[in-house]
C-alpha cells in the first residue's frame, strides 16, 4: 500500500469513531462508517449481469484502481498564489456543525477537513505516528500515555493551542450533557474515571492529569491495541472560543456554525449556510505558510459536478460519483486519481433480535427463515459478484471474500477459501439439505415441507439500486428460492434503517455496506452488545476472538493477525453476512494543481498546506 493522505485521514478517522449511517452515491465513501445501498453504476438488467462475458461487453471498459496515480503528475513548482475551487458533491446542503467533536454527517466532515486538522498522524498500516502537532509515548507497564503538544501551534484567532484544548475535547465529549454521538470507543471508555465522569458522578476525569501547558498523562484501565490504531481522540477543541457556552448548546452555537476555529492551513472567512465557504491562507500555520491564497468550497449536485470540472468551475471534486467516471474518463484538463476505499458491500441475514432491555443481541437462528448455514451457503454460491463488479461498476468495485477488507492490507487474509459462483453447486447444497420443490410450483420448500418465502430489503436511490436488487433476487430464484422485495419495492433510506434497527419481521435478508475505520477491530459492527450488529449474530467463539483481538496480549501484532485470520475464517464458515463487493473511489483534479495526493499513509509532500497551482 502507499501512503495515507491527510484529507482521507480525516475522513477515516471519523469512520472508526462514528457509526453514522449514510446512503452512498457511487463515489462517496464513508463516513462516515456508512451503510449504503450500493446504489450507483451503469444501467442494466439482472439478466444481462449474470453472464460475465456479456456483462463486460455491455458496460464498456473495465478499470482497476491500481492502474491510477495516487498523486497528481503535475510536479511543477507552486506559484504561491491562486485559489483552489473545491466542489463538494452532494444532493443536499451541508448541515454546518463545524466542529469535530460535534458534527454528525459526512458533508460537514469534508468541510471540516479543509480548515481543521487532526493532531495525530497515521502510517500506512493505520498506526499512529508522532508526525503531527501532538506526540505520544505509551508506557505499557504503568498503563499510561503521555501526550505532548508541539510548541507554536495556533488557533486561527492567534491563540496558542495547549494541552488543555486536547483535554477539553474529552471533557466535552464525556460530559453528561454532551449532545453528540462520540465517546463510546476504547479511546474514551478505557480512561480511568471516564465512566464516572460521563455518569455525572465526578466533576473531572480522574485518569487525565495535566502536567503543564504542553503535557498531559492519561491513565488507562488497560493498554489495548485499538488505542494506537485510532483509539486516541484526534482533535483539539478551543476552550477559550466556547467560554460561557453550555455544552448542551454547543452544536447550535455561533462558535460552531458561524465562526468555527481550526488549526489547519486555511481559515474560514465567510459561510453561506449549507452552500459554500470561503477560506484564506493562515499565515501562522504551524508547519509553514500555505502555497495557496485560499480555498473556495461550494456544494455541487451529482448531476452537475462533471460539467463543473469540465468548465473549470471546480478544480477538485470531493465524493465524485464513481459511476459517472466511464463517461468522463477522457475529460480534458482533468487528472483522475484513485485508491482503495475503506468499505464493503454485503448481504445480511436476520438471525435474531436486539434485546433493548439487556442491551445485547438475542441470536436465535432456529427461529429465523435463514438460520440454516447451508441455505446461506447456497445463496452465496448463487451470486456472481465478479460479474456484478464489472457490469454495474466497471471494475471499480470487485468481488469480496472476507469481512476484513484489503484496505487493511496487512490484515486481510486472501488465502481463505470462500464460496465461488456455482449455481449448480448451490442447487446440490439445497438438495442435500432437504430443500425440495414438493408442490411443483418452481420454488423449494423447507426441509419440513413448509413454504419458504424470503423477504429481501434493499434501499432506493441511484440508477443501479433496482437492477442490482433484481439481479440478486433472480440469482436466488434460479436455484429455486422464492425471494421478493420487502413490501414489493425498494425502501427509502430512513425507513430501511428503522426496519433493520427494529428487527422488522418483514426483513429476512437485506443489502447494505459498512465503511471501516483505521482500526481493523470488527467488534463495533459484530460485537454481541453492539446495536449495529444488524444480523443479530453472536456466538461464544466469535465474541472471544474479537475480545482477544483487542486484549493486551494482542499488542503483539503477529498474534493479533492470527486472531483476526481465525475470525475471518469463522465468518466465512458461519456466514451471518456475505461480503459481496470491495470498492475503490476516484478523485478528479484539475491539471494545474500540484502537490495533491490520496495515498495511504502520512506524506508531508501532499499535505494541504503544500497544495498549489502552477502557471
Automatic annotation (TrEMBL):
> Annotated region Disordered: where?
27-62
Biased composition (Acidic residues) is annotated at 29-38, 45-59
Biological source species: Salinicoccus jeotgali
From the Swiss-Prot or TrEMBL record, give the protein name.
Oligopeptide ABC transporter substrate-binding protein
**Upper lineage ranks?**
Bacteria, Bacillati, Bacillota, Bacilli, Bacillales
Signal sequence residues: 1-22
Q: Which UniProt keywords apply?
A: Signal, Transport
Stretches assigned to the Solute-binding protein family domain: 133-526
SUPFAM superfamilies for the chain? Periplasmic binding protein-like II
InterPro entries, alphabetized: Peptide/Ni-bd (IPR030678), SBP_5 (IPR039424), SBP_5_dom (IPR000914)
Classify the source by domain of life: Bacteria
Q: Family, per the entry?
A: Belongs to the bacterial solute-binding protein 5 family.
> What Pfam families does UniProt report for this protein, alphabetically?
SBP_bac_5
Task: Quote the PANTHER family the UniProt record gives.
Answer: OLIGOPEPTIDE-BINDING PROTEIN APPA, PERIPLASMIC BINDING COMPONENT OF ABC TRANSPORTER
Amino acid at each position: 500500500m502507499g501512503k495515507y493522505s491527510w484529507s482521507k485521514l480525516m475522513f477515516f478517522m471519523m469512520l472508526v469513531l462514528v457509526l453514522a449511517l449514510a446512503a452512498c452515491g457511487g463515489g462517496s465513501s464513508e463516513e462516515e462508517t456508512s451503510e449504503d445501498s450500493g446504489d450507483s453504476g451503469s444501467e442494466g438488467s439482472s439478466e444481462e449481469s449474470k453472464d460475465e462475458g456479456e456483462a463486460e461487453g455491455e458496460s464498456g471498459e473495465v478499470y482497476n484502481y491500481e492502474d491510477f496515480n495516487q498523486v497528481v503528475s503535475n510536479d511543477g513548482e507552486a506559484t504561491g498564489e491562486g485559489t483552489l475551487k473545491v466542489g463538494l458533491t452532494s444532493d443536499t446542503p451541508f448541515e454546518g456543525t463545524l466542529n469535530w467533536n460535534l458534527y454528525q454527517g459526512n458533508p460537514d466532515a469534508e468541510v471540516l477537513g479543509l480548515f481543521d486538522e487532526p493532531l495525530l498522524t497515521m502510517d500506512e498500516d493505520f498506526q499512529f505516528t508522532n508526525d503531527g502537532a501532538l506526540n505520544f509515548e505509551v508506557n505499557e507497564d504503568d498503563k499510561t500515555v503521555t501526550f505532548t503538544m508541539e510548541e507554536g501551534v495556533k488557533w486561527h484567532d492567534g491563540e496558542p493551542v495547549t494541552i488543555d484544548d486536547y483535554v477539553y475535547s474529552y471533557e466535552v465529549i464525556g460530559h453528561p450533557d454532551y449532545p453528540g454521538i462520540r465517546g463510546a470507543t476504547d479511546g474514551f471508555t478505557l480512561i480511568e474515571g471516564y465512566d464516572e465522569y460521563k455518569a455525572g458522578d465526578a466533576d473531572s476525569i480522574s485518569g487525565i492529569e495535566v502536567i503543564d501547558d504542553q503535557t498531559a498523562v492519561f491513565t488507562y484501565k488497560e493498554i489495548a491495541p485499538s488505542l494506537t490504531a485510532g483509539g486516541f481522540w484526534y482533535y483539539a477543541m478551543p476552550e477559550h472560543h466556547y467560554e460561557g457556552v453550555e455544552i448542551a448548546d454547543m452544536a447550535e452555537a455561533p462558535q460552531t456554525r458561524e465562526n468555527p476555529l481550526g488549526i489547519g492551513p486555511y481559515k474560514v472567512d465567510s459561510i453561506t449556510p449549507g452552500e459554500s465557504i470561503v477560506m484564506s491562507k493562515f499565515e501562522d500555520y504551524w508547519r509553514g505558510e500555505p502555497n495557496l491564497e485560499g480555498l473556495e468550497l461550494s456544494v455541487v449536485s451529482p448531476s452537475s459536478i462533471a460539467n463543473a470540472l469540465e468548465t473549470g468551475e471546480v478544480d477538485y471534486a470531493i465524493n465524485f460519483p464513481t459511476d459517472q467516471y466511464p463517461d468522463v474518463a477522457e475529460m480534458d484538463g482533468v487528472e483522475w486519481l484513485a485508491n482503495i476505499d475503506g468499505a464493503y458491500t454485503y448481504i445480511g441475514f436476520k438471525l435474531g433480535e436486539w434485546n433493548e432491555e439487556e442491551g445485547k443481541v438475542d441470536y436465535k437462528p432456529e427461529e429465523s427463515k435463514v438460520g440454516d448455514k447451508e441455505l446461506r451457503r447456497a445463496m452465496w454460491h448463487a451470486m456472481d459478484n465478479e460479474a456484478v463488479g464489472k457490469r454495474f461498476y466497471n471494475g471499480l468495485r470487485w468481488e469480496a471474500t472476507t469481512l476484513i477488507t484489503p484496505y487493511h492490507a496487512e490484515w486481510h487474509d486472501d488465502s481463505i477459501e470462500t464460496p465461488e459462483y456455482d449455481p449448480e453447486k448451490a442447487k446440490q447444497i439445497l438438495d442435500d439439505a432437504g430443500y425440495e420443490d414438493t408442490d411443483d410450483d418452481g420454488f423449494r420448500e423447507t426441509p419440513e415441507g413448509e413454504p419458504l418465502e424470503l423477504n429481501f430489503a434493499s434501499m432506493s436511490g441511484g440508477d443501479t439500486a433496482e437492477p442490482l436488487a433484481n439481479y440478486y433476487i433472480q440469482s436466488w430464484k434460479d436455484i429455486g428460492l422464492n425471494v421478493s422485495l420487502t413490501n414489493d419495492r425498494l425502501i427509502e433510506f430512513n425507513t430501511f434503517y428503522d426496519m433493520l434497527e427494529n428487527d422488522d419481521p418483514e426483513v429476512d435478508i437485506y443489502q447494505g455496506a459498512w465503511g471501516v475505520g483505521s482500526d481493523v477491530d470488527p467488534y463495533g459492527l459484530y460485537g454481541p452488545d453492539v446495536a449495529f450488529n444488524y444480523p443479530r449474530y453472536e456466538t461464544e467463539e466469535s465474541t472471544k476472538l474479537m475480545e482477544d483481538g483487542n486484549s493486551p496480549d494482542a499488542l503483539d501484532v503477529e498474534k493479533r493477525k492470527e486472531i483476526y485470520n481465525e475470525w475471518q475464517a469463522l465468518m466465512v464458515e458461519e456466514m451471518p453476512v456475505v461480503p459481496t463487493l470491495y470498492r475503490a473511489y476516484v478523485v478528479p483534479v484539475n491539471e494545474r494543481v500540484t502537490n495533491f495526493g490520496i495515498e495511504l499513509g502520512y506524506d508531508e509532500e501532499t499535505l494541504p498546506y503544500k497544495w498549489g497551482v502552477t502557471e
